[in-house]
Amino acid sequence: MNTTLGEPNAVAIGFFLLFVCVTLAITYWAARRTKTTAEYFTAAGNVTATQNGFALAGDFMSAASFLGIAGLVATSGFDGLIYSVGWLVGWPIITFLIAEPLRNLGKYTFTDVVAYRLRATPVRISAAFGTLTVVSFYLIAQMVGAGNLIRMMFGLSYEAAVGIVGVVMLAYVLFGGMIATTWVQIIKAVLLLGGAILLALMVLAKFHFNPLELFREARTQYGDAVLAPGKLVSSPIEAVSLGVALMFGTAGLPHILMRFYTVPDARAARTSVFYATLLIGVFYLVTFILGFGASVIVGREAIVNADKGGNMAAPLLAEVLGGTGFLGFISAVAFATILAVVAGLTLSGAAALSHDLYQHVARKGQATDGELMKVARIATTVLAVLAIALGIVFKGQNVAFMVGLAFAIAASGNFPALLLSMTFRRFTTMGAVTSMLTGTFSSLVLIVLSPTVMVDIFHAEAALFPLKNPGIVSLPLAVVAGVLVSLLRPEPAAYAGYEEVQQRMHLGAGDEPKPTPKPSAPTGHPVVQPGE
Amino acid sequence: MSPEEALEKISAQRQRVAASLTLVMVVAYFGFVLLIAFDKPLMGSLIAGGDLSIGILIGALVILLAPLLTGIYVRWANVNYDQVVERLRLHRRIER
Question: What secondary structure, in 3-state letters, does A215-276 show?
């Protein structure tokens, strides 16, 4: 087919500029409401449950999952559904196990919860390390994706695309903090969902709004195999391992967890995850329709000709059904999507650097709010420069595995320690540190030894570790290490805080006057209240 | 019932609800994945006059199950859990 894809598209550039102008205007407005660190990192808890639901969905729905899953469905049918399901099932887990206690126990980062009754310095250092590792890999994947996609869609050079994403994102986060970031996520979520739903309706309109007729047409063109599992899942252990990383990794992603501090209370936190789950669920069902629509209407050959990975299925579909204008709109939305995800990641990285490392480790909780704001803004700038640099360094590299790696580290390094700190009375500082480091390092080492890196990137004959995703090994390892070390070296001072954790987990800090700060515990444990 | 007992009771109740719902989600998801891994012919078998496969149907149902379970939890918490927690909060405020 003839396509204008990759040629500078006036509508795409127009829509994108409009998006940037509107979001920068919001940033200007938000900047005047961002004076304290509470406003900078959590919008001072003034985000409503509905807004946060959209923002969570906006943080999570990446361009990669939109374009990638639609492409996978278009080129191989059923198999794309396996990914869609995997990306969604972590959300109920967040609702049941994490969202409310997190909101009640912490202030800016999930580390607040882990460190609540443990010794701050070692816990904060290891948790910040886990956070920054997850954020870095996620950022690399997003930036490289941004460079490639935008080159393909707008005909812009890779470096220019990476630079634009980095600079615009820096403007949002640096000046507008969480307030601006939240609105960018909300607008992006509405645009992406709206665009995808509109496109799906245009597909279904050709099939009497009956998905079954669409599937029938796909079967006529490509045979029964299109509706059946293909090559994606071959080994059960492999499939379960990826599943573990996706399901529990979502509940350990720092930029997602941070969003629960932006709502006023636990009730709003819980309601917001419900909205997010609903929106993301709809999004994946719609993406499935888009994939089938593209394979039937655009044709697999044209899709693979445009991009071997199939990523252009949805944009091509938009062009066939809605012309160059609609292609431009979808391209602009994809660009906006990357911006929003990168902004959320950067803000959570900045929180780890300034709140966890600077405030609680370097300054022992003594830094003033003004001082912390300065550090937060420096951290944000450093991360934005790093994001651009990483994007350029990893140009042309196969980074598809990095999102899977980020999920594996989040599932093994962050999630077990977070859950154990709230549910396991005899959890200790050493236990938490061991669990977080074991989870993070075992994921890193195992992925380096996996076929994805050893065979696909370094072209070795065979890999030392047989699985592509380490989740099934690294998560249990982190749990066992955390529990064993805790039991072997008891820490009574840590048990003492358990009742308080239990109470605050349900009742929250409350609006009542805060109790006078406790002096250091007799054992010399500096009890640092995350709320102080 | 003392406030401490009430807190313990509602905490245990929440844990039971949360654990059961988590278990349902885990079983549904890994069940789906393992069915694909172990019985591809079953997942590929056609229904609805050949226009749908069992795999697509189950996959779509797992996707719908996620917001459904989340909704069930939110409803339980809004109706039962919040009431008790609110009472305990009030009690704590008076105590101080």
Answer: HHHHHHHHCHHHHCCCCCCCCHHHHHHHHHHHHHHHHHCHHHHHHHHHCCCHHHHHHHHHHH
B48–A240: do the CB atoms touch at under 8 Å? no
Of the residues A52, A69, A93, the best mutation for testing chain B's interface (the one with the most B CB atoms within 10 Å of its CB) is: A93
From A62, A201, A226, select the one nearest B52 (Cα to Cα): A226
A398: three-class secondary structure by DSSP: coil
Average pLDDT of A406-432? 94
Which residue in chain B is spatially nearest to A91 when comparing CA positions? Answer: B66
Residue A173 Cα to chain centre, angstroms: 16
Report yes or no: A445 and A508 within 8 Å, Cβ to Cβ.
no
Q: Name, in order, each residue with C-beta under 8 angstroms of A311's C-beta and a sequence gap of 6 or more.
A: A67, A68, A71, A149, A152
Angstrom distance (rounded) from CA A356 to CA A458: 36
pTM: 0.91
What mean pLDDT do residues A328-335 have? 86
Residues of chain A positioned with their CB less than 8 A from the CB of B10: 506
Q: Is residue A152 within 8 Å of A305, Cβ to Cβ?
A: no
pLDDT band for A1, please (50, 70, 90 cuts).
low
Percent of chain A with pLDDT over 90: 61
- Mapping DSSP to helix (H, G, I), strand (E, B) and coil, where does residue A92 land? helix
| Cα–Cα distance list, A265 to A22, A48, A451, B9, B84 (Å) | 29, 10, 44, 22, 16
pLDDT reported for residue A311: 85
Mean pLDDT of A184-212: 94
Contact B22 A92 (CB under 8 A): yes
The residues with which B52 forms a beta bridge, in sequence order, are: B47
Which of A275-279, A394-398, A488-492, B49-53 has the weakest average pLDDT? A394-398
Whole-number Å distance between alpha carbons of A278 and A164: 32
Secondary structure (DSSP) of B30-42: HHHHHHHHH-HHH
Which tokens belong to A26? 């919001």
**What are A56-106's pLDDT values in tens digits?**
999 999 887 888 889 989 998 888 888 889 999 999 999 999 999 999 998
B11 → closest Cβ in A91, A240, A502: A502
d(CA B63, CA B57): 10
Tell me how far apart the alpha carbons of residues B9 and B15 are, in angstroms, rounded to a whole number. 10
Give the confidence band of A515 by pLDDT, cuts at 50, 70, 90. very low
Q: Note whether A40 and A189 are within 8 A (CB).
A: no
CA A283 to CA A481: how far, in whole Å? Answer: 38
Phi-psi region of A134 (alpha: psi -120 to 50; beta: other; left: phi over 0): alpha
A443 or A514: which leads in pLDDT: A443
The dihedrals phi and psi of B46, each to the nearest 5 degrees, come to -90, 145
Q: C-alpha angle with apex A246: A243 to A252, nearest 5 degrees?
A: 140
CA–CA min distance B51, chain A (Å): 5
ipTM value of the model?
Answer: 0.94
In angstroms, rounded to a whole number, what is the distance separating the alpha carbons of residues A209 and A194? 17
Q: List B residues 8-67 in contact with A (Cβ-Cβ < 8 A).
A: 10-11, 14, 17-19, 21-22, 25-26, 29-30, 32-34, 36-38, 40, 43-44, 46, 48, 50-53, 55-56, 59-60, 62-64, 66-67
3-state secondary structure of A403: helix
Place of tokens 């999102």: A403
